[in-house]
Amino acid sequence: MNRESLLRQIGWFAAAVGLALFLTVLVTLPSGAPPLTTIFVLFQGGLGSLSKFGQALSVWVPLTLCSVGLLIPFTARLWNIGVEGQVIMGAIFCTAALRPFDGGGAGQIILALAAAALGGALWALLSGLLRVFGRVHEIFSGLGLNFVALGVILWLIFGPWKRPGIASMSGTEPLDVSLWLAKVGSLSVTWAGLGLALAAIVLAAVLLHRTGWGLKLRAVGENPKAATLFALGPRRRLLQAFLLCGAMAGLAGATQVLAVYHRLLPSISSSYGYTGLLVGMMASYRLGLAPFICLFFAVLNVGSIQLPLQLGLDSSLSGVIQGVMVLSVFIVQGVRLWLAKRGEAA
Amino acid sequence: MIVLSDIHKQYGRVRANDGISLTLEPGRIYALVGENGAGKSTLMRVLAGHTRPTSGSIEVNGERLSHLTPALARRHGVGMLYQDPLDFPAMPVWENFQLGAPRRTKRQVVDILGELSFRLDACFLPDEPVSSLTVGERQLLELLRLLDLGATTLILDEPTTGITPEQKQDLFNLLMTLAREENHTVVLVTHKLSEALEMADAIFVMRQGRLVCTLTPPYDEHELVSRMFGEAARGEVAPMPEVDETAAPRLDMRDVLFAGPKYSMGPLNFTARPGECIGLAGLDGSGQELFLRGLCGLDRMPGGKLVLNGREYGSNDFKILRRAGVQFVPADRLQLALFPALNLMEHITLAFPDRKEDRQKFYDEQCVERFNLRAHPDTHASELSGGNQQRLLLSLIPDDAALLLMEHPTRGLDAGSSRQVWNHLKERCANGATLIYFSPDLEEVLEHSHRVAVFYDRGLAAVVDRERATMETVGALMAGKPAAEVFGNRAKAAAEGGAR
Question: How does pLDDT run across B354-374, given as a tens digit for each residue?
């Protein structure tokens, strides 16, 4: 990319951020909040201290796993909206793998991670099979399976896996401390989590841009009919893409269980799957951008906890800002295309 | 009277129309000829108000305008008939006819349709869905609709593609009536010279976006050809390759049934020898598409056996047949055969995974030298011209492919590229490959086939040798005349002629 077009890209991105801030201010005004203070508190809450940055990173890990995973099926033009359910299934499988153990070490943790990846991958495979053999669009099957996964986790927490005597939204019996992932110093982010997220980024980059597999996957997404003529095995490849994404989403679920909550909660996924979709859209599905946007969203997420404390606002405002960000990017892209088209016609 | 003056139309760097001025007078039939991509369609779209010219002016009935809109064009009586009729197949005839017209009751519409049909010697059932009409009838309906809307200038874009020779004659007679008796202006856009020579009072020749010349009768066909194609007109057409009559058949179909998404056909019995070029003729949807797609394994084969190079196949699995040397090239290259956003190198990597290491060399040898594909290897497939797309596809077919199945091999190609494609295909046949292809252009089928297989009503109607395959015989078979009748009469006529 040459310098000028890079500058222009940054300019357009700045325009999108500006629009997003403007729209956010519009949203906050009716609630009586001072707009600039609100935004300041948000970022202060996410970046104000090292420990807050650590919290942001611990959000960044599952979010990055989800959004990087999503890029793989998207390369084949698949919208794996079922990623949310795959996170939940990962968490469930992770918990299930650890139930026989009262304590343990690296061996049990690796087993749990493997189980989580398997759980997510199997749940994604369901979407994939429905898509490839049943001609059910993955958006519909994914959305449906998300609800099923939510039903399963609620049933487990209030049924077979409930704490002795109490069944509540507060989840299952906490894990033994020996099964928690090791933290980075005093920060809340874990070494294993960071390692998994970075490994996922590298794996996706190599797979998609350096191997024949990635090229074939792109070809399948580009034109499935031509892929059949080239004997590229489009069905197999689509299923593989689902499996990989599901495995990464499952690992995201595992980090939620092993590193953040240390038990299974109904809201274990923290909606990171859906947020991951937003990240993907905002990054226009470019791998290079996704981790940074994940960080930005993670900071917003952590910072929003300060809103009720300091300003008496609802913490869901950060969700509003994230949504507004994505919409702004789309609006700016649309304006850009429109201008380009008009420039061509004139 | 319509006067176009100095019309320019630019698409990015491409000059589709480059300073075109011409005058259309009422009561005359004009032909606009030129190769594909010469700018004919753009010019006509400007005239019909679908495209806004970059500069230039249009004078209609004394009114000077910088551009037309579809509504303005209609008000000035300009109507365009597109190559693929722009109608709504699920809707009945009368509703299609009513589209765009002022509010009328069904009864009024039916009356007007009947009156117009009577005047122009056509026949329509108002309640029949348009999907059950032939392409020729749909064209005619569209023509009636335009006339009903008050069109006095009729533009017909390649109207004879996909209709039988008989339907073509009817259409031409109708156009002649409209021009001579009702003082309409008719513009016939075509790349078939014979039609222009037969019909036109004046021929506009376009080349590379410019109006090269306007010819008036008497026409010199040789001059027309050289004006139209320039240098490209000169060039050798390879002769038909010899077929070894004694060789074992390459392909033997035994009671084969094919089932596509819309219809099924069979049982088919057909054989083809190595080196043979077999053209499939038939109107759209007569079965030739399913024949090719079934043969390569893209559509199902519920029954029968395929024998390929002596090996028997009870099912037509695409991958197995591909490994046995069956290659399929669809007509819609960008939609079905190429990856629009992948570049040339990536296509080569996908087609020949084992040549990944020396793909640059492969590209230089195969694409550039052998196929004259002049494009940077980083070019996306979607940016290639139709000719280069076909060159790329042909260069991706392995040399040892035994059975080539092609849909309209020269679709969208100019004369020079078409000749190059045919010479290449004949070279492959001379080296022992078998080619089975279809083309909606009957002349092309007759020119490049050892045998012509004619399809009618979703079945194989007849297989005709090169000697007996003429415009009349194949045209009659395509229209559904039984083979016995077509050849029986001719045999009888020949016998009578001999007796005299």
Answer: 777 777 888 887 777 777 777
Confidence (pLDDT) at B491: 53
Q: What is the CATH number of domain A53-305?
A: 1.10.3470
Q: What is the ipTM of this complex?
A: 0.80
Distance between CA atoms of residues B178 and B175, nearest Å: 5
Q: Does A236 touch chain B (CB under 8 A)?
A: no
B429 phi, psi to nearest 5 deg: -65, -40
Does residue B358 lie within any of the structural domains?
no
Q: Is B100 on the interface with A (CB under 8 A)?
A: no
The closest alpha carbon to B127, from B101, B91, B102, B87, belongs to B91
3-class DSSP state of B297: coil
Q: Please give the Cα distance from A59 to A322 (Å, whole number).
A: 14
Residue B373 lies in a domain: no
Question: In whole angstroms, what is the distance from residue B228 CA to residue B191 CA?
Answer: 9
Determine the Cα–Cα distance for residues A228 and A51; give it in Å rounded to an integer. Answer: 52
Among A266, A36, A34, A53, smallest CA distance to A170 is for: A266
Domain of B174, in residue numbers: 2-233
0.80 surpassed by pTM: no
The amino acid that residue B437 corresponds to is Y
Nearest by Cα to A72 from A228, A232, A242: A242
Cβ contact, residue pair A212, B353, below 8 Å: yes
* pLDDT digits 0-9 by tens, A201-245: 999 999 998 888 999 999 999 898 899 888 888 999 999 999 999
Q: DSSP secondary-structure letter at A183?
A: B
Read off the pLDDT of each residue in B83-90 and give the average, rounded to a whole number.
Answer: 82
Q: Is there a domain that residue B411 lies in?
A: yes
d(CA B46, CA B18): 13
Q: Give the domain CATH number at B97.
A: 3.40.50.300
User: What are B274-293's pLDDT values in tens digits?
Assistant: 989 999 998 877 888 899 99
Residue of chain B with shortest Cα separation from A226: B337
Per-residue CA distances from B299 to B262, B302, B318, B332 (Å): 11, 10, 9, 17
Kindly tell me if the per-residue pLDDT of A94 is higher than 60: yes
Residues B206 and B272 in one domain: no
Q: Which of B298, B318, B342 sits opposite A219 (nearest CB)?
A: B342
Highest mean pLDDT among B43-47, B121-125, B330-334: B43-47
pLDDT average, residue stretch A171-200: 90
